[in-house]
């Protein structure tokens, strides 16, 4: 029987910060840490193998680091207990350990933020919740900024954060005389492609990580994704090395080519630190500091550094604020009345559309795709098809190693799918296949023509783009930021519009066929106990014609 403790500090899988506010006042003589691996956290959304492995490996390394500091850590390995949920595991250990209080920083998921205090209440144990000092803006600070606003725009929040934290500022003015350098950060590669790319630093799995990988391969054998190339940073030391590698070798060209895509190149000039940041292995202040230092010492241009800082100091903090401001209602947003099921290709990558094959393929291989793959390939296609936003959210949360709900949900529902009706972004991010052609080489090796909306070579993106404009004409044709797109639609003849509608309907019918339960059909021969049954079909509502 474990000895009772004064304070039991709960450390969740995305809270692996050894300097967490949860440890303020920690006494190794009387306090203890609690961590648990639970199958439900990998199956409440059907997580891919890379995502599960990243969480388990990072958690085990954090456990070992805490024990090396002399902390008592009560750690439940997945194969060593049968508690079905995190809540059930905590309830069992509260009864055994009998702490005076449980201490935690705010969970990164609304579900756990609601359920874990309730577990403590039922056990008669005090729950002490501390704001997560990992972030530069508290929930209360963001709520004050948001008060009275009907629409929330990252740019204005970002400028206030720059001023408050004195980042890239020259007195009261932004360095370089402008707040952002978007115009300089949208280049694509020419026909020669990116040329020689230095491979990002690799992190070969050590014994601890290998044990986590082996567990995933055994326990979650039926889940999608592959682990043969697994090399993510899962310790603080590895995360710092990944950061330094990015600063030295990719940050200088990050801004210029951050939106570019190229066949067989999943990383290009991107950082590969988003998972480490979201698991709290890296402090965002440190990330910002070293990026700004690279500009000050002349090793990276201002446009690249500002573009990167904006993602960390601006967008990341803004997204977290929006999550806590609008949950749980955020999860039910569906402003465009989209109700199509998620196509099977999202779980298999099996499609003739080269862009989707590349984006989904690297997602399953690495648990990663950069922001344009997510926004303007997988996200765009789902929006044009009219997939129910909640199903799109569940897929993103399941497949990416950096996916924690507070950061993933607003990005998908608010930005990618426009499900919030414009609270976060002024217009839907929609485009034809010509955008993908401009930003990549995918279309050169694709059987579809991005210039065609109908006919045997019609690009599904282009067909569905015009169909999207047609279906949502009443909502957007007078919108000040989208009017030009709908004016272009008005130039098409009735015959063209009818052909687009017919082609789009046939596309949806083909995608819809067998979409429900496709993940299980594609990946499961004999479902394991951890794999939920495929969802039951619900009556389908058509989007507005």
User: Mean pLDDT, as a whole number?
Assistant: 92
Total beta strand runs: 7
The first-level CATH class of the largest domain is given as: Mainly Alpha
Strand order of the largest sheet: 3-2-1-4-5
Query: How many individual domains?
Result: 3
Q: Spans of 5+ residues with little confidence (pLDDT < 50)?
A: 516-545
CA gyration radius, whole angstroms: 24 Å
Structural class: mainly alpha
Largest sheet: 5 strands, parallel
Describe this structure in words.
With 545 residues, the chain is mainly α. The chain has three domains: 7-130, Rossmann fold, CATH 3.40.50; 139-198 and 250-326, Alpha Horseshoe (Serine Threonine Protein Phosphatase 5, Tetratricopeptide repeat); 345-522, DNA Cyclobutane Dipyrimidine Photolyase, subunit A, domain 3, CATH 1.10.579. Helices cover 47% and strands 5% of the residues. It contains 23 helices and seven strands. The strands form two sheets. Strands 3-2-1-4-5 form a five-stranded parallel sheet, with helices on both faces. Strands 6-7 form a two-stranded antiparallel sheet. Strand 6 (169-170) and strand 7 form a beta hairpin. Helix 19 (460-471) crosses helix 22. It is globular, with a radius of gyration of 24 Å. The N and C termini lie far apart (65 Å).
Layout: helices, strands, pairs:
Elements: E1 7-10, E2 32-36, H1 40-43, H2 49-68, E3 73-76, H3 86-97, E4 101-105, H4 110-123, E5 126-130, H5 139-146, H6 154-165, E6 169-170, E7 173-174, H7 207-219, H8 236-249, H9 251-257, H10 274-278, H11 284-296, H12 302-326, H13 345-348, H14 354-366, H15 371-385, H16 389-399, H17 405-416, H18 433-439, H19 460-471, H20 473-476, H21 483-490, H22 494-512, H23 518-523
Parallel strand pairs: 1-2, 1-4, 2-3, 4-5
Antiparallel strand pairs: 6-7
């Amino acid at each position: 029987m474990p000895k009772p403790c004064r304070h039991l500090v709960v450390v969740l899988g995305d809270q692996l910060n050894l300097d967490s506010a949860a440890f303020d006042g920690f006494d190794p003589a009387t306090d203890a840490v609690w961590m648990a691996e639970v199958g439900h956290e990998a199956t409440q959304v059907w997580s891919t193998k890379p995502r599960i492995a990243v969480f388990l490996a990072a958690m085990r390394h954090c456990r070992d680091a805490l024990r090396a500091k002399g902390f008592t850590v009560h750690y439940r390995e997945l194969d060593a207990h049968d508690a079905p949920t995190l809540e059930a595991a905590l309830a069992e250990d509260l009864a055994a350990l009998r702490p005076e209080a449980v201490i935690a920083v705010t969970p990164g998921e609304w579900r756990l933020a609601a359920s874990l205090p309730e577990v403590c209440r039922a056990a008669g144990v005090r729950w002490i919740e501390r704001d997560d000092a990992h972030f530069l803006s508290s929930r209360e600070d963001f709520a004050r900024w948001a008060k009275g606003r009907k629409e929330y725009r990252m740019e204005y929040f970002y400028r206030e954060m720059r001023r408050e934290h004195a980042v890239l500022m020259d007195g009261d003015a932004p360095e370089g005389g402008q707040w952002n350098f978007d115009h300089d950060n949208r280049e694509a590669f020419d026909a020669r492609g990116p040329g020689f790319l230095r491979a990002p630093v690799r992190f070969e799995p050590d014994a601890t990580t290998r044990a986590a990988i082996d567990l995933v391969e055994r326990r979650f054998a039926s889940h999608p994704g592959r682990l043969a190339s697994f090399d993510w940073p899962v310790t603080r030391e590895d995360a710092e090395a990944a950061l330094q590698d990015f600063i030295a070798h990719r940050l200088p060209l990050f801004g210029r080519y951050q939106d570019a895509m190229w066949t067989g190149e999943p990383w290009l000039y991107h950082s590969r630190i988003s998972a480490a940041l979201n698991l709290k292995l890296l402090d965002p202040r440190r990330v910002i500091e070293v990026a700004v230092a690279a500009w000050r010492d002349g090793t990276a241009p201002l446009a690249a550094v500002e573009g990167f800082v904006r993602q960390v100091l601006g967008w990341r903090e803004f997204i977290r604020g929006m999550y806590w401001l609008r949950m749980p209602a955020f999860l039910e947003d569906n402003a465009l009345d989209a109700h199509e099921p998620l196509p099977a290709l999202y779980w298999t990558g099996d499609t003739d559309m080269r862009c989707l094959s590349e984006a989904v393929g690297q997602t399953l291989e690495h648990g990663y795709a950069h922001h344009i793959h997510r926004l303007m390939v997988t996200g765009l296609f789902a929006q044009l098809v009219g997939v129910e936003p909640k199903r799109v959210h569940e897929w993103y949360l399941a497949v990416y190693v950096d996916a924690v709900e507070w950061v993933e949900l607003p990005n998908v529902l608010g930005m990618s799918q426009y499900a919030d009706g414009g609270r976060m972004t002024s217009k839907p991010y929609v485009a034809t296949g010509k955008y993908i052609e401009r930003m990549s080489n995918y279309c050169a090796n694709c059987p579809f023509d991005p210039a065609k909306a109908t006919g045997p070579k019609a690009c599904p993106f282009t067909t569905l783009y015009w169909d999207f404009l047609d279906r949502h004409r009443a909502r957007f044709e007078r919108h000040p930021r989208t009017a030009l797109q709908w004016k272009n639609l008005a130039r098409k003849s009735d015959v063209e519009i009818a052909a687009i509608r017919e082609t789009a309907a046939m596309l949806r019918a083909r995608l819809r066929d067998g979409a429900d339960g496709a993940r299980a059909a594609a990946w499961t021969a004999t479902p394991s106990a951890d794999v939920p049954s495929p969802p039951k079909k619900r009556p389908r509502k058509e989007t507005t014609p």
